[in-house]
Write a structure and sequence with these properties.
Length: 169
């Protein structure tokens, strides 16, 4: 088990390999299909700094945050998967979700020294490992707003790194 603490360094991201099991601790971003296009617009507009969080070395979990906890949504939804390359270019090092990504997305992860980790849908387990939560932006989206949460030892498996994927046949 590889212990990762946010923010994740370039060296730590480069060392991750497909099939590695990791535990993530520290603050991570949470967003899914409703909010990620808004975050990309903020990056394009140069206003992403208004979030008060540096994207470099950050983790983004493809999830909504509800009173029942957090659990992964499918990362291959158009709005989510299309955000992976630009968010990686902006500094995100690890994308957490579930499901198979397209080869182009896996190549973009490699280009920006970022990785994708699959997290099993274990909402109750993850809620027990989540100690703080704060809405950063777009509160009108409710549980799909952009959240910042503090986690302790989130388990995940690296699903794509260095141009390879665990889903390759």
């Amino acid at each position: 088990m590889i212990a990762l603490k946010t923010p994740i360094s370039e060296e730590a991201a480069a060392a991750l390999q497909v099939g590695d099991t990791v535990e993530i601790s520290g603050y991570i971003l949470c967003g899914r299909d409703a909010v990620l296009p808004k975050v990309l617009k903020m990056i394009e507009d140069g206003t992403v700094g208004e979030l008060g969080v540096d994207l470099r070395g950050q983790v983004i979990f493809h999830t909504a945050v509800s009173p029942a906890g957090v659990g992964p949504t499918s990362s291959n939804k158009l709005e989510i998967e299309s955000s992976i390359a630009p968010l990686s270019r902006a500094g995100i090092k690890l994308h957490l979700g579930k499901g198979e990504l397209h080869k182009e997305t896996i190549q973009a992860l490699d280009q920006y020294n970022a990785v994708y980790a699959v997290i099993p849908p274990v909402t109750a387990l993850l809620e027990a490992k989540t100690s703080e939560r704060k809405v950063l932006a777009f509160p009108e989206l409710g549980m799909e707003a952009l959240h910042l949460i503090k986690v302790d030892r989130y388990p995940a498996i690296i699903g794509a790194a260095h141009g390879r994927s665990i889903y390759e046949k």
